[in-house]
Amino acid sequence: MPRLAAVLLSAVVLCGTGWSFFEDVSVGRELAASANAFVKTLNDTERQTAVHPFDTPKRVDWHFIPKPERKGLQVKTMSQPQREAAFKLLRSALSQVGYDKATRIMSLEKLLKELEAGKGTNIRDPERYFFTLFGKPGEGRWGLSVEGHHLSVNFVIEGDRVVSSSPQAFATNPAIVKTKNNSGIPLETRILDKEETLAFDLVNSLSTEQKPVAVIASDALKEVRNPGLPHPPKEEPAGIAVSKLDDAQKSLLQQLVGVYCESMPPKVAAERLSEIEKAGWDQVHFAWAGATEPGIGHYYRVQGPTFLIEFVNTQPDAAGNIANHIHALWRDMRGDFALPIQ
Predict the structure, then answer these.
(1) Span 20-50, pLDDT tens digits
(2) What span, in angstroms and rounded, lies between the C-alpha atoms of 292 and 248?
(3) d(CA 148, CA 153)
């Protein structure tokens, strides 16, 4: 069998990131340069809001719900040069695929505001996203958080390397735009498409012997586990092991994992996949709960020694369409935020 990481890396290269894995690109140096350029645009008061010590508890205070208060400097309060520098920093932290997902998730806030007819006026806002730095970029370990409703990306960087890129949360309401609107969001817009369709393809490919092992509950979990907590749950993996899948099913699972990696810069994606391969793909499990068709609540997780993926689609969208509201997370089973699980 060819090295699975190499196969997946080729797929990520072709996904439109615009980078090659064989270029001598230092993600850490690029991030530090973009972060320092952003800091230079800030006055003293703004700097106190946007930049915190690396060891502050705020670094692990994260969530993707519409919280009334958040750490960091809000896009809404930024000048145009500051916004440009902030989004250049976000672009440095993600691949083109990831950057497109993040900015499209932000844009859905105006649709939510319209569909909710003014409810939550101060929360549904595409400019209500926050940028926070921890420590001094380029010196020792330092961190970056970009967060708001349905988006939370968190990084720890040291020298040339991104040493942690979790928790990573991308979410979307609606999952598929089904309602005509005046917000400029086309019908059938679907930001987290492959995260859902590949998983449906996989669960529906399972045999009558495999499915009872993979399906852990007839009803979907209502939410991903440990949202907003510093670490993922320490539970043992559930569901069916990769070793029990046929070649076509293994390919689907590998593609699904690749989707969650391709939002990161290629070298970060490469490291994630290399770590999975070193730990052993046969140690990875796929678990499903709920319906195996769209429009009814469903949930899945993919778990290995180094990572955890969780996906849930049970809530209605803002227009009332059932199971049309996705939360999808990547977490590190060894500890998020470059902090070991105790």
Answers:
(1) 333 445 899 999 999 999 999 999 999 999 9
(2) 18
(3) 10
